[in-house]
Amino acid sequence: MSQQYPALLVIVPLLSALAVAVAGWVNRKWCFPLAAAALAVAAWSSVGLLFRVLHEGVVIYQLGGWPPPVGIAYYVDHLNGLVLPLVSIVALLNIMASKKSVEQEFPDKICAFYTLYLLMVTGLLGIVVTGDAFNLYVLLEIAALTGYGLLAIGEKRSQLATLHYLYMGTIGACFYLLGVGYLYIVTGSLNMVDIAEILPDLYHSKAVIASFIICMVGVWLKMAFFPLHAWLPNAYTYAPSASSSLIAPLVTKVMVYVMIRLILTVFTPKFAFAAIVLSDAVVWLAVIAVVMGAILALAERDLKKMSAYIIVTEVGYMVGGAWLGNRIGMTGAILHIVNDALMTLCIFLVVGNIVYKVKGYAFDDLPGLFRKMPFTMGAFVIGAMSIIGVPPTCGFFSKWYLIAGAISAGRYDFMAALLFSSLISVVLFFRVFEISYYEPFGDSHGHDDRSGGIDEAPVTMVVPLLMVAAILILLGLYTDYIVNHIVQFAIPEALV
Amino acid sequence: METIETITSIKPLLAVLASLLLVPILLSSKGPNIRESWTFVAAGAKFLIVLSMLPAVLEGAEIVFTIAEVVPGVAIKLKVDAFGMLFALVSSSLWIVTSAYSIGYMRGLQEHSQTRYFCFFALALSATVGVAFSANLLTLYLFYEMLSFATYPLVTHHQDREARSSGRKYLLYIVGTSIGLVLPAMLISYNLAGTLDFSHQGFLAGTGSKTLIGLLCFMFIFGFAKAGIMPFHSWLPAAMVAPTPVSALLHAVAVVKVGVFSVVRVLTGVFGTDLLLSFDLWMPVIYIASFTILVGSFIALSQDNLKRLLAFSTIAQLSYIVLGVGLLSPKGLTGGIVHIAMHAFGKITLFFCAGAIFVATGKKNISEMVGIGRRMPVTLAAFFVASLSIIGMPPCGGFLSKWYLALGSLEAHQMPILLVLLTSSLLNAAYFMPFVYKAFFCVPKDAMFENTVREAPAFCLVPLVTTALISVILFFYPQPFLRLASIMVQRITGG
Fold it and tell me: What ipTM goes with this model?
């Protein structure tokens, strides 16, 4: 069975999506258990796969037994061995936490939601596990289209926002396809490892350079790297809570994974950092992304949009870290994929809880929340600490590596941008804390009548949230383990 | 060089955790008396654990415990040496006293959200002992930040608009400097040296140019804004909106002492006295400290609100400690380090008195306290004794630390510093003595209170009398603080 893990983690959610759609016709109550079970199997397989990679090294799985370059091969090394469990566990935690939210917001579309959910997770897992460049595009489109569906179920404005996302996302995916097309023309192969072996002789070919840049731009568009981010805030804000807490933590991070995969495996660091001279410019763009994300977040008066702009900042961290061109920076970027997915999940689950109880997510809806929803707000504090970068939460340690990488590469502007965004995050989150802690204002000296007790979200929404908050701290303490045992091997030795 | 015996024990971790574990107990306590009893149990446990490590440290050993290695070459690690032991003893013993005082104060005023108050107090004490026992810069940073965020709900306890704006100022100064200055300085140091472990001779020697090391020095000194070094001192008077027990422990003893402890720790453990001497970095340290001492004392003169006056007095007194380190001479270092203890006991008494006056009479300003000595003789007597300690007069402990500082400045051939010390003592007298005089001796028609004695509640009185007495006892028997300071100074100066 463990031999089949790579296939299981894609096939099971895929087939379950079909099963959920059918089961939903019969009885709506079967949708959730089926979906949760499928995701549990996927999570189990991905964790098992990670252990296999830690013991055996790279795992290659040929779909149908057909060898590349004709067949599609799944290629699992330490890099995606780390990201796969991340995606499946986040999806699993989210589906458990969002059950009540789904029932509250669109009870008539439950089975359609879970079908799309499973297909989306299939797409994301497929993107991460595959070793074939075109297969990646196919799954990218699966994830994108189902994503659009999931996001558009929300309030009125969600449909227009999703339409904008659709336009830009499709352009991004097409750019990626174009880039892969050039690679195919030049190398005759679609398998990533194969391409990597053929390319070194062709480093100075204009087609290869063009392919790299076009792929990058496509991926940057899909990960909302400033200034290609414009689709993200609206699309994530107006979506229903259950969708945004799946998509916000995962989609942009998976795209960062794709970028790093292209840099490290397909084109290799020798090309990306030595043969062409892009890294200085890209780190500059990342500095701007980080700063602008922070400033745009400051301007927002609602929690969800603020969190969406924070995602833009975090993407800036990862792109900048990866493009610093040194091992420490790349370590920081890869570590941040994991850390940021979990931090974002924490924040969006909090927002989901707040929306469930208060029916709104603007700052005006927040007064008195620390008293009414202490567990949710407690987890929010931990998530906020992680985004600000306070030890021992995991966010501090990925920032550590990113700043250390910046110092090592002499990019003090990137370091300054990172520190600046930390300080802005303090303001962003303490603004929220202030409103939920101080208001409503009573008489002076605070001795007013503090009526009303605790009115928390349901247990099924709070427990996964608290688990995520605990993971944020645990991951921080285990940073060294993760870096030394997994991330170290994900980065080729060529990168110093 | 002597080899230092290192003992590995879980005790430092237990000392830190003693109050952390209190929090769930407090949250589930049914009834304020049970809650308060548990606070005493935890405070007592913490103090005893710290005390149990004292004999080993007095013999020259150091106790270590590694929690987790988190970054290559750097672990979250605890180490109990003489300096950390001194600070931990001061803060854990004063927590017991402050908890007693808190009961009197909070119940006397019928404050709201007392459970939250005691919980965050416990967290703050965990962080304080964590800073005291930090073995390296990363662990210190971790607990320093934990302290900043744990004290925020305490400072803003009253949850009104004034609390909100003071809270913002608090965060701006304290978190702004720690993320903006300490974090990059820490990472640059790590980049230069590959380690962050505090060593008795510092670890930055020979790793960077004079400009870079000098820049790092400034970043650290101003980055630890909790030390109240000007110009990053304004948060302290603003934080006086907090309930007085918070002001007392945190701002006279724990938070500000953490700041100044961190500055001393970094100057001696990261840079080292040799590096400071060879790069002439002791000069800016002395100037910055002297400036803060003098200006702080002057501003205190003009204050009418008693707590604000005490805040500025604290700002000035803290820089004595930094000054002691800047002198780089054994006596100066000893004076600075031992002042941490002496000032703590003196200042906390003063704050306790201010709070007691507020509980008993509702008065906050000195101008409204004429003749109060007749109504609250015990409180004002304690205030008098404590102010003697702060001014630096015998028979109070503060005299000892000032004596060492004065000798230290002579040892280092810094006559101007001697002048600074004398001037500030005079200024201290100038803002304390008139108040005490007018409290006891005044023309009957100016007296604002009746002649009957109506003191603050017992829970307030006993702590302040205790700490005042300790201030006096420390003059005659300054152990173990003086011995701990001497051990530390010996290690630092490589004796």
Answer: 0.89
